Amino acid sequence: MSDLKRIPIGIEDFKEIIDKDYYFVDKTLIIKELIDNLAKVQLFTRPRRFGKTLNMKMIQRFFEKTKENNAYLFDGLAITKAGEKYMKEQGKYPVIFLTLKELGTSSFEKAFDSYKKIIAAEYSRHKEVLNSPALSETDKQRYNALLDFTATDFDYASSIKFLSDCIYKATGTKVIILIDEYDVPLDYAWQNGFYDEMIDLIRTALSSSLKTNDSLEFACLTGCLRISKESIFTGLNNFDVHSITSTNFTRQFGFTETEVKSMLDYYKLVNRMKDVKEWYDGYLFFKDEIYNPWSVLKFLKDAVTAPDFECQAYWSNTSSNAIVKDLVQNADLETKQKIETLINGGTVKAELHEEIVYADVQTKIDGIWNMLMLTGYLKPIKIETVDVMRVATLKIPNKEINYIYRGIISDWFREEIKNPDNESNKLFEALIAGNAEELQSEINYWLESTISYFDAQELFYHGFMTALLTKHKDYLTKSNRENGDGRTDITVESSPRRNIAIVIELKVAKTLDTLGQKADEALDQVVAQNYDREYKLMGYKKVIKYGISFWKKTCNVRIAEE
User: Fold this and answer.
1) Are the beta carbons of 503 and 484 closer than 8 angstroms?
2) DSSP assignment letter at 490
3) Beta pairing partners, 380
């Protein structure tokens, strides 16, 4: 397949993709929509890894006036077929491009240092304006101070506005400002305790450059969230927000089904469409069905060389899962039940609030559900008005996100049972004492306490029991081990002394009424298949045999002891 185009994993520069002939999914009509939309400032909110940076780089390459002519980059693409009106705008404007991703650090001091470097780099990119007689000596001194890191904090906070003024003075052409991932520093600041300092910096930087800026042609911002106007965008008029519920720009971020089919066909993988749809589809931007572009590209990269390659949860390794972890760790009983409903394919309802107020995220459950929706961990399948309020019906989008939830829940559960003061000690004591009644009570306690998913049936309960039994250093827990005439679900062996061995068989009941019957069947299987034979031959003094059945959050325990 060496003659096929390469897949652009992690390449965010539009020019590099075109120049090096990578596979490119044409999103250039976003430029047409930008020109047709008369808003001075436009904010695009989409989940992480949905092509925001690539689109911003593409917009920069289209509009920016440079020494080299970049028009060739758009040859044959959709924007060139949209009409001469749009191509006349190509290469016409000076552009300020800033990405705030690098401000995602653990302290305000580090974030501010990164901000200074980002500003200095963009000032350096436009430093030819220093040769213009339109700039005063005072302007040049301030400009140079921002270049060599000697400017005041106020100068840095207002540096975007000042740069636009200098460029406008020098060129006579108003400036396009592009700010990518504007909310990343705010997210990190909230998590690390310096939100107030960071919000002051971002508010000043954006307000001065976007509000009543006579040097501005138009501006575009991207981010995952829309931070509330009260926090950042106060007083900003002619400001359009294009979120996942908006009616325009719906197909310009992420891949449509038609685009995915074309890619799979190009790479001779059209037979994998069903798998790709189940794992990476499911996002809804207004009414358009959208695939996660990062995960689709990662899958293609693997599947091109191994066509039977199984789908993976690629997004879990790239996107911050902190909001899901917080939800799981701080969930009360009602929230746990809603999480279970979601991961078992159900839905939850929440009042829709697309403007995020960080203070509400941890104090209001609707704030958490909204954050999960805006970050891509839930999708709105229906939005309706109920008693004046907009209410969203939310669902997990696909298998990939379901996998992420389950992984976080499993990690949380393992951490819970590591706590030396928790109930798992009582459970283990009952297990080795052969106290079936107490063991049943303790397992039921943990079933009620944890967040469960039941569509995997016995596999879920198998993992649940194994996790409960693996924390004790004096006992060795094994899973799916060959014993006697079959394979035992779980065994527990005292080590190093050969005192006690425990054999456990698990069954899942279809109804509550058959719970006891299934526990009997499990125990009968242990006896009939001689699962204790090996331990008798090894000289264990005591072998305890358990049959345990489950139905949702209830279990039944049977015991046979020798």
Assistant:
1) no
2) E
3) 394
CA dihedral 559, 560, 561, 562 (to 10 degrees): -170
Structure tokens that stand for 267 in this block: 């790479």
Q: Is 452 exposed, middle or buried (0-12, 13-18, 19+ CB in 10 A)?
A: buried
Digit-coded pLDDT (tens) for 64-115? 999 999 999 999 999 999 999 999 999 999 999 999 998 988 899 999 999 9
SS3 content of the chain, % helix, strand, coil (to 5): 50, 20, 30
Rg (CA), the chain: 29
pLDDT digits (tens, 9 = 90+) for 341-365: 999 999 999 999 888 777 666 666 6
Identify which of 421, 395, 413, 268 has the alpha carbon closest to the alpha carbon of residue 343: 395
Residue 244 near residue 380 (C-beta atoms within 8 A): yes
Tell me if residue 355 falls in helix, strand or coil. strand
For the stretch 432-439, contacts whose Cβ atoms lie closer than 8 Å and that sit 24 or more positions apart, written own/partner, are 432/475, 432/492, 432/494, 432/500, 432/502, 432/544, 434/544, 434/559, 434/561, 436/546, 436/557, 436/558, 436/559, 437/557, 439/546, 439/557
The set of residues, in sequence order, having a beta carbon less than 8 Å from that of 81 and lying 6+ positions away, is none
Asked if 41 and 49 count as a contact pair (C-beta separation under 8 A), the reply is no
